[in-house]
Structure formats: C-alpha cells, structure tokens
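Lab meeting, action items carried over

1. Structure of the two-component assembly. Owner: GW. Status: complete.
Input record:
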Amino acid sequence: MRWAGDPEGGAPFVEADPARPDRLVGFDVEVAALVASGLGRAPEFVNVRFDSIDQSVARGDADIGFSGIEDTPARRTTMAVTLPYYEFREVLAVRDADAGRYRTLADLRGKSVATLGGTIAYEILLRAEQDYGIKPMSYDDDVHPYTDLVIGRVDAVLLDNVLAARRQKAMQGFTVQPQTVAIGHYVGVMAPENAALRDRINGILLNAVRDGSLERILRTWSVWNDDQPSLHAKLLAGEPIQPVVGLDTSTSVATASRWEAARRYLPSLLRASVVTIVLSCLSMGLAVIIGVMIATGRVYGGRLAKLALTGYVELIRGTPILLQLFVLYYGLAEAVRLPAFAAALLGLALNYAAYESEIYRSALEAIPTGQLEAARTLGLSERQVLRLVRGPQAFRLALAPMTNDFVALLKDSSLVSVLTVLELTKQTQIFATNLGSWVLPGTLCALLYLAMSLPLAWLARWLERQWRTLG
Amino acid sequence: MAEIVLQVEDLHLYRGARPVLTGVSLDVERGELVAIMGPSGSGKTTVLRAVAGLESFHGGRIVIDGVALTGGTHATKATLRELRRKVGMVFQFHCLFEHLTAIDNVCLAPVHAHGIAVPDARRRGLELLAGFGVEHRAAALPRHLSGGEAQRVAIARALAVDPPLLLMDEPTASLDPERRAELGALLRQLQRQHRTLLIATHDEDFAREWATRVVRMRDGRVNGTV
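Predicted assembly:
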C-alpha cells in the first residue's frame, strides 16, 4: 500500500527518526502500517508536500494520504475520506504578556494571526478577517508561526492542540489559551473512485478502535487525551461526525459550481495580483538602482571595490533565491526583524540587482571607446561622460534584457509566499486546495499573470521603437 | 615672428617594450594647415592622440597655446581640463554620439563642460552647422547622416568651444573625390579664419593640394618637411 505524507510536518505525525534519519516514525506512520497490515500489504511511503497530498493521491501517486489531514466539507466532496481517527481542537497561542488580553479571535482586531497555509485553521482565520478584522498570515510550516509569535512578528497563532503542545515543549514565551476555537478530525484521504477501498479501510480502523490498538498507538505518541474516548464511542455507535467548517458556513467552495467558486475567489485573486505587481515593480525599481551602482563600481571602481562587487554578484547568482529569502527573513531575525513584505521586497531586489548589474556592466562595456574618447576630448569629466554619453547609450542596449528580467521577476515573486506574503500563486494554491482542483484556479492565475506581463512586453517593445526613431 | 600654437619636442612613446614614437619634434604656427603623412604604423595618429591628451607619453614635451604636457608624468585633471579648451579633435570615424541629434552633439560640450546657456550654445551651434552647409540636418540622428555630413557635424562639434588648434585623423578616408574637394575648401576656409589645423593622412594628393606644409613620418620619427 503506497501512502503519502509530509515528513516536514514532523512529529508526532510523520518525521524522520532522529536516531536513524532514513526511517520514518510518528503516529500517522503507525496508523498507515496498521491499515496496510489489515489489507495484507506492506506500507510504502511516498513523500508529498503537505498542501499537495489531495492532488497527489487523486492522480494516483499513492493509494492513501495520512499526515494530519483534516476532515473538511471540501474534502468530503472531492475525495474519498476515511472515518476520523483522531479529534483535535484548534487553539489560539499568544505571547505570555498578552495572555490576559487576547483570549479569542474577537480580541485580535487589527492584529496578525498566523497559521499553516491550506489548513482549516487558515479558513477560520479568513472568516475571522471578515467577522473581527484580524490579519491572517499563511505559513508553509508549523514551526515559524510560533517563532515569529515569540519575536513579535505576529500576535497570535491558530493551530491544532497537537502542534501547539509539541511547540510548547520545544520553546518558551507563549501561552496556549484554554478556549477551543473549533473541533476537527484527522482522516485518511483517497481518490474519489476508491470508495470500495475506503470502506475496507474504515472496517480496519473500526476494528482498531474496538480492540484498542488505535488507542495504544495514540498513547505511544502522547496524543491520547480526554477528547478521544467520546470520538471512539461515536464511531462504534455509528453516529455521524460533522466535518469542521472554515470560511464558508453556507456552502463549501467545493460544492459550489465552478463559476460560482471562481466568482467568489476572484476578488482575493485580484487582491493578490495587486500584491504581486506592487512587489514586482518596487523590487525591480530597487534592483535597477542597486544594479546600476554595482555595474558602475565594477567598471570604474578600484581593485578592491571590483573584487568585492564581483564577489557579491557571484554569491547571489550561485545560490538559490529561496535560500536568500529564508536567510533574510528567518536567519537574520535575531538581528534585524524585517516585516515580511519588506524582506520580500529586499530579497527580490538584492537578488535581481546582481543580474541587472551584469546587464548594465556588459552594456557599458559595449559602448565603443571612440565615443568615450570623443567625449573626453570635448572636455567632459569622467562623470559627465558616464551620465551624458555612455550611460544613455548603454541603457538602450540594456532595455530589452531588462524587460525580460522584469517579466521573470514578476513570476519569481511567487517565491516570497515562503515569507508569508500572500501573492497571486499562494492565493491560487489556497483556492485550489479548497476547491480540490487546479484546473480553474490555475487557468485564472495564468490569465492574471499574462495580464500583467504582456503589457510589460508591449511597453518595452514600444519604448525600444521610440528610442530607435528619436535617438 | 609668427605665433607658435603647437610645440612638440622630442616625443617618445612605447607600447610595452615596442617603441612607437622615437623623438618626434614639430612646431605648428597659428593659421597653418599641417598634414602629417606616412605609411600605416609610422606613428602619425599617435602624435595626434598624444596632443589631444588621449595617450600619455614617456619622454619629451608638448606645449599647446601655453599648456604643457610632460613625458613620464601623469597630467593633472586641471591641466587636462585646460588642454581640452585648446584642442578640438575630429576622429577618423567621426564618433558622433549616436543617441543625440546633430545639434545636440554640437551643443553637448559648450553646455555641460563650459557652462554656456542652452539658447546661446544652440545659436552658436546652428551658426557652425550653417557655416558648413549642414544646418538643415540639425535635428537628424548620426545614423541618418551621410559620411560627408557626419564629418561636418563632427568638425562643428570640435569647434563649438573655439579651440585654437583642430586635429583631424584621416579626414579623407571615407570621402569620394567630390567630397574630398569640398572638405579641402572647408579646411582652407577655416585656415583663413586663422584657425590652426593638424591632420594625419595617407592621402598624398589631398595633402599636396590643401596643406600649407607636409610633415613626413616613418618608424616613429619625423622624416622630413616639405
């Protein structure tokens, strides 16, 4: 039995055994083993990103997904889901000093509240944004919401009690509020056509509830608590168990028609497009300024300046932009606490400045010596030669590659979602997760990117034509 | 006695270990049109470049209208600035600024290097272009000019700040016979206005017909004067 999970989610769900990193441990690992053995098969692990498990299972990469997957109306509509095997509570964590004043989401008007993207907790935050005016922040992992809470980047974290309890063991400085924001359940998830397999697995899970083997697994991982016996009793009695509802209490996105879903999500996609275009324009502007300074330094500077600037360019070009963003935002957090948008802006600008500087340097070096000598014999200073003769001609040469880079930056800006900036690609991913399909969200997202990049390409071509005729 | 505008004394210049100029001496008086002639590699263009301050030299001295450059030393910025007021240069391939119109090419130095007001610089620039018969091309970009037009604009650009000495490198290289004659007449006209011209050329006939004096160079030294 191939089962999908995300070891990045970590203990107690699925994680690499600290003693033997090639081996996986966690209660989801044991639940998967229990199910596999019930089916008379051997469990085979497939590593899939947490937010892609549904899609991956639906396309047949694995038979089933187990990784702290939540039981939601959308999932029930688009996938085959097992009986719930664990009950959790969404709980709010705040800094110790705020424990007295931020007890519920309603207390957090205007404050930023973090959670893991693509989860029901994020949907709950979106609803709280409408109801109470909080600012939802989406993270790609369940550790950084808490570290950012402690250092003050966010004011609260909403995650399930299992994750909150685990974080509390590892770090100090925050309090988990006793009130429950919502109750939810973990399920196994299968492709919708696998209903027969689901029924067999449900039988295996019920047996495990009945004979206490599920309880033993949960106790081993210290996640057995007072909520579980009542869940188990309901399961054995055959009582229906409601899925947890996030943003939409009337009809889930997944059950709405495709066009209705698109209509509902379009405003947030457009808002995310504004973030993308503003971020890209500001980053490019800054990258151009820094790039011009680097290029000028490399062409005119002393030996030491040239060496240092070449080192910078090679360092930036030789390392992944994702790593640079992580270092800037999380790595330097102890020393400089940049807000997410500023870190994203700076990260993209510093990265692209290295590439821009190479374009400008080669453009500057492409201006014939005769032009420079003619300018010098006329009595222009070196600075004037650069500003009046060399720079303007080099800029015309650089324009086409610069436009290419701007279009590339527009798309690379999607990487900043790792810093919790909610731009177009991230918003699309959230839409796709809720809808259980990538077709419509992907098409809308592509159209929005094209709507931004095509005019840029036209503008650049027009500018090139203008300068060719005007000089 | 006629006033000497350019004095070149015992000029030595090496590229690496290879000697390029080996003791060039030359005086040019105000109002002269001197042609330096010689085969390729004889050093005639290098003399022009050294006089224009584009090439530092290892020995000897150049004095242009009171401004001195000394071999083996680096000219200060102030000296170079002063030198640029004394010498205009027209390059073999004109080297007009490709992004500027003809009139903007002419006005660039007066406005930015000499602080002349834009309207005054334009008026003077248009006069110069008119004097050379190309004022109707004032708004054209260099790539839309013919070879002859581009050369005239380049001469106007070099003369825009009224330097006492004008240098020209291979001025007839890209001209047909008719344009050559026109250029000769134009240079004669400049000479009559008491300008001093030093040209480097291969063109024996042109030099004979239009120069007031021909200086011959061979292997980096002056070989004779006619």
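2. GW to write a short summary for the group page. Key points so far: Chain B has one domain: 32-44+76-225. Residues 177-192 of chain B form the longest helix (16 residues).
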